[in-house]
Amino acid sequence: MSILSQKTISNKISFKGVGLHTGKEAQINLIPSEPNTGIIFVRTDIKKNNIILPTYNNVVDTTLCTTLSNDYGVKVSTIEHLMGALYGIGIDNLIVEVDSQEIPILDGSAKIFIEKILSVGIKSSSTPIKLIKINKKVSIEEGTKSISLDKSKVSSDIDFELNYKNPIIGVQRNKINVFCDDLKHIFESRTFCLYEDVEKLKKAGLAKGGSLENAIVVGDNKVLNHYGLRNAKEFVNHKILDCMGDLYLSGYRIVGSLKTTEGGHSLTNKILRKLFADKSNFTVIEIKEKTLPYQILDRNLLKSIA
Questions:
Q1: Which CATH number is associated with domain 5-128?
Q2: Active-site positions?
Q3: In the chain, which segments carry CATH 3.30.1700.10?
Q4: How far, in whole angstroms, is CA 216 from its chain's centroid?
Q5: Fewer C-beta neighbours within 10 Å, C or N terminus of the chain?
Q6: What span, in angstroms and rounded, lies between the C-alpha atoms of 102 and 20?
Q7: Is the pLDDT at 304 greater than 60, yes or no?
């Protein structure tokens, strides 16, 4: 299987779980969809005006998660882990049914989404994929925070640095190529918070469904989860997962280089809005086999050629 053509999943998949912030039980169904339909969210608990498109300009809140809304005020939140999974694995078309406002947090990462998608298989079409090619650099600086999107010949790079005063998290940095790297550590990396912030979040009406089963909790000098971290850079790797999910609100995967320091949902949304505010910043390209650079062939195909 290559990334030359648009893909969906082979069969319907269902998940059940609690929402991280609402604390409410929810079920989602991932349903195969036709080429050129993109990703579509449907609130099945609402009978009309219940379709929400995951686009950067439908983002209405970025407080500790990404929340989307349609023109009728119907919302869906905490979409970033699922969208990050779809972005990383290359799913172009999918219907996401959900019977509550918030996507279940599951284990706090994209690991379960990826495992179930791979268990049912991925279905390729004969329709070529489309990508967004960055033509010129756009950037934003907000105090110590910064983010930029710049052009790249063939790769989709994310270079992320986080900086926490907490000694366990500290300064972490990682850089990935979405098209070519093994993303296992990205997909398995869980959301996290400081123990000192837990009560503040709950008083603010957030993290009602949070627990050590779906989030890393960090004390002053240790990780409080019984089995510790899943990988050495789990904190920054989770931020990269979030970033991938938020980037997919562009509509397509991006050929370009993103670099950010102390980034997050808000900054990623702002850079997308700035990117699309000027049509000269980008080009939407349709990729066909004869024109596809070898560097962005999928890993399995490259291995078979070798």
A1: 3.30.230.20
A2: 265
A3: 131-305
A4: 18
A5: C
A6: 8
A7: no
Q: Quick one: DSSP state of residue 58?
A: G
Please enumerate in sequence order all residues whose Cβ is within 8 A of that of 228, keeping only pairs 6 or more positions apart, or say none. none
pLDDT score, position 302: 30
Residues in the chain: 306
Q: Domain 131-305 belongs to what topology?
A: lpxc deacetylase, domain 1 (3.30.1700)
Least confident of 29-43, 120-134, 206-220: 206-220
* Rg, C-alpha atoms of the chain: 19
Q: Where in the chain is the domain with CATH 3.30.230.20?
A: 5-128
Look-up of token digits 């999918």: 94
Cα dihedral 284, 38, 185, 305 sign: negative
What DSSP character marks residue 31?
A: E
If one counts every other C-beta atom within 10 angstroms of the C-beta of residue 222, the result is 12
Question: Pick from 212, 219, 270: which is nearest to 59 by CA?
Answer: 270
**pLDDT band for position 154 (50/70/90)?**
confident
Cβ-based neighbours of 104, under 8 Å, separated by 6 or more: 15, 16, 17, 18, 19, 25, 26, 27, 28
Integer CA distances (angstroms), 275 to 23, 143, 176, 229, in order: 35, 20, 21, 35
Helix (H, G, I), strand (E, B) or coil at 276: helix
